Amino acid sequence: MAERNATTTWSGDLGSGSGSVTLDSSNTGRFPVSWSSRTEDPDGRTSPEELIAAAHSSCFSMQLSGLLTEAGTPPETIDTSAEVSFGKSGGGFAITGIALTVRATVPGTDREAFDQAAQKAKEICPVSAALAGTTITLDATLV
């Protein structure tokens, strides 16, 4: 079993405080975070929602690649973006949805097979599974 770690250090109150996220497992860097990066202009800082978008788009792309390869049609390219919506919901703030957009070049496949693989990837990618309960939409185009 693989384990991955990240650490966040926060200073100050929610509104004016700030922190940083360090990606410990890969040692690829430290990323500044703040409340305003979640609700206003990021101004050079990331947010938990942006990190979720990164995790989801990469997980989905790998899952789709695996499914297409298993079907005998490995992809040339898969470009996936994930847009994570964050805002007021009920009595507080919440992730209100995730929109996946994928454009892929897959020689030897047809639209129907691609659509089926993309839908299955959305359903079974581990990040999608971890986000169960969140509305996740998919716009998949074979190019």
UniProtKB/TrEMBL annotation:
GO BP terms in the entry: response to oxidative stress
Renumbered residue ranges of the record's region Disordered: 1-47
Biased composition, class Polar residues, residue ranges: 1-11, 19-37
Pfam assignment, any one: OsmC
GO MF terms, alphabetically ordered: peroxidase activity
Compositionally biased residues, Basic and acidic residues: 38-47
InterPro entries with a match to the protein in the record: KH_dom-like_a/b (IPR015946), OsmC/Ohr_fam (IPR003718), OsmC/Ohrsf (IPR036102), OsmC_Ohr_Peroxiredoxin (IPR052707), Peroxiredoxin_OsmC (IPR019904)
Entries under PANTHER family matching the protein: OSMOTICALLY INDUCIBLE FAMILY PROTEIN
The protein, known as: Osmotically inducible protein OsmC
Organism: Haloactinomyces albus
